Amino acid sequence: MHTIAEHMTADHKACDNEFVVAEEAALAGNWSEAETAFNAFNNDMTRHFRMEEEVLFPALVSAGGPSGPVHIMRMEHTQIKGLLEQMAAAVTQKNAQEYGGLSETLLMVMQQHNNKEEQILYPIADQILVKERETLFGRMQAA
Amino acid sequence: MKLASLSAEQAPPISVPLRFFIAAPVFLALVALLLAMVGGNPFAELHSPAQIAATHQVTLGFMAMVMLGAIQQLLPVVIGSPMPASRLVAWLTFLPLIAGTLSLSAGFMLGKPALLNLSWPLLGLAFLVFIAASLTSLARATAKNATKTALLLSILSLAGAVTLGMLLARGYAVGLPLPYARLAAAHISLALGGWVLLLIIGVSYQVVPMFQLTPNYPKWLTAGLAPAIIVTLLLNLVLLIPESAPYWARFIAEGIFWSLACCFAVVTLRLQSQRRRRVPDAPLSFFRLGMLSLLLAALFSLAALILPAASDQLRTLSALVFLLGFALSLIQGMLYKVVPFLVWFHLFRGGISTGIPNMKNIIPEPWMWRHLWLHGGTLLAALLAPWWNVAAWLIMLGLLLQGALLGYAVFTGIAVYRRTLKRIEQAAT
User: Fold this and answer.
1) 3-state helix, strand, coil in chain B (%, to 5)
2) Which residues in chain B come in under a pLDDT of 70?
3) CB B294 within 8 A of CB B323
4) CB contacts < 8 Å between A and B, how many?
5) Which candidate, B31, B37, B18, places its Cα nearest to that of B323?
């Protein structure tokens, strides 16, 4: 059975892969592919945030986990969502230069955010939520 | 890692790193002026006063200046533990580092003992404060990862290098009867092989997979490399204690050290060739040029062991390629990522996302590529430096232009920050 850390880290990696495909297509000016790839990336990021914000974080806090760091993670989600919105606009406008600058920025923010979750928050979740893990996975799938 | 490291306040104020980053390029330009003043070919003669002065403007004025500023920023990211009292530490390292570097290089250039005597306590203070603050940060980090070990060993090497450097400067100033050549060799080993190399290794373990989207470094490497390097360095230092150690022993000790350095470079280049993000990226190219230079520096040093007749020139080349090729490439590449990110990050902290320039609108990418070519050209000139006097002028010109370009880039970043902040504040009122 996977731990929460393994499960969520794999999800981060999957999003990274979609990020790469979308960026490459946008910078090459291949806009139909860029749009498809960006939408896939954007949807999976949104879904990942939903799994955390609606299932994992509330479970963590109600089991006595740290609420301060969870709050920071939510704030960083807002930052990332802001960048994703701007990237969506760049795709609509077919503006490769704008997209490239935004995706560069997103990469820096997203990787630092993921690193904090993977190194700190998920291991805490694995400790605190060990008994509820199965149900949490089920609820996150449905989120 | 402590939970506090997830706090939004973990990052020091933007003025802390930026003051180091804007001062550093000035020293690159100063090196160029210093080399121009000397005339002739300062790279033809090892350990000439001009070479010592120029080297320290690069290592202290540029490299240490950037690293001391960047580490405050990096520690929360790579080991999850910020430095204590960031503003105070910044002032107590920044000012004495500038004053100490200027007086040290002027002391060597002008042959003035009073300036040397002024320099070593100032530099000692700067590094003592930095070492104390970074060790505190490491002690507070509960994480036990390979980066933390490498950083710890790096900082301990720095402490050794600084102690020996202070002793040497004091020795030159008052004419103490010291074994100068052997002390200088130990000082250089600890400074470059310990502090610089281990710092870059430790940070790379995290930064390369994270931002360049490569696979992780292999476990055998992260577990063994930094301790193996420090053991080899210590072995090299022990061999410096007797007046003359057997040649074969030095051959083996130095050979192992450079093989370990090669191992890091080869693995890093391999990981980078497997990166998932394939779009052109100037800072990544700087990084790869740095790794190729590390391999080249190792080759020159190994060749110096095998060809004693050409040993002096080969060692000069190795040192030049290590400093200008390896360290400078990595540091400049890192600045081109860090400065735009910091500007964006600190502007975004206000919570407003519209109207904040993205990273590529803060420092335009074409500048970075131009700088990379300029840097590559300077390196090619460095490869000819021991033999061709014109190369010294080319290096000088290259460093002057690089200092100007980098300084302008950092300055532009600061200007964009100020301008945007003002606009946000005006919009808020």
Assistant:
1) 80, 0, 20
2) 1-10, 46, 350-354
3) no
4) 74
5) B31
Question: In percent, how much of chain A has pLDDT > 90?
Answer: 79
Chain A residues with CB under 8 Å of a chain B CB are 16-17, 20, 23-24, 27, 66, 68-69, 72-73, 75, 79, 82-83, 85-86, 97-98, 100-102, 104-105, 107-109, 111-112, 115-116, 119-121
- Say how many C-beta atoms besides its own lie within 10 A of residue B36's C-beta: 13
Nearest Cα neighbor of B247 from B201, B181, B327, B306 is: B306
**Per the CB < 8 Å rule, is A75 touching B361?**
no
Residue-number span of the structural domain to which A10 is assigned = 4-142
Contact A105 B143 (CB under 8 A): no
pTM as predicted: 0.94
Contact B391, B43 (CB under 8 A): yes
**Which chain A residue lies closest to B337 (C-alpha atoms)?**
A108
CB B124 within 8 A of CB B99: no
Within an 8 Å CB–CB cutoff, is residue B213 touching chain A?
A: yes
Residue B341 in contact with partner chain A when CB distance is under 8 A: yes
pLDDT averaged over chain B? 92
Task: Nearest chain B residue to A120 by CA: give it.
Answer: B1
d(CA A64, CA B9): 23
**Helices in B193-327 by DSSP H: which ranges?**
197-212, 219-238, 247-273, 282-306, 311-320
Q: Report CB contact under 8 Å: A108, B337.
A: yes
CB contact under 8 A, B6 and A100: no
H-type alpha helices, B274-364: 282-306, 311-320, 328-348, 359-362
Is the dihedral angle over the CA atoms B400, B402, B403, B408 positive or is it negative?
Answer: positive
What is the domain-level CATH number for residue A93?
1.20.120.520
At residue B194, what is the residue type? G
* Count of domains observed in chain A: 1
Q: For B31-72, how does the pLDDT look when each residue is reduced to its tens digit (9 = 90+)?
A: 999 988 887 777 777 678 888 999 999 999 999 999 999 998
Q: B344-398 pLDDT, tens per residue?
A: 999 887 566 667 899 999 999 999 999 999 999 999 999 998 888 888 899 999 9
pLDDT score, position B392: 86
ipTM of the predicted structure?
0.92
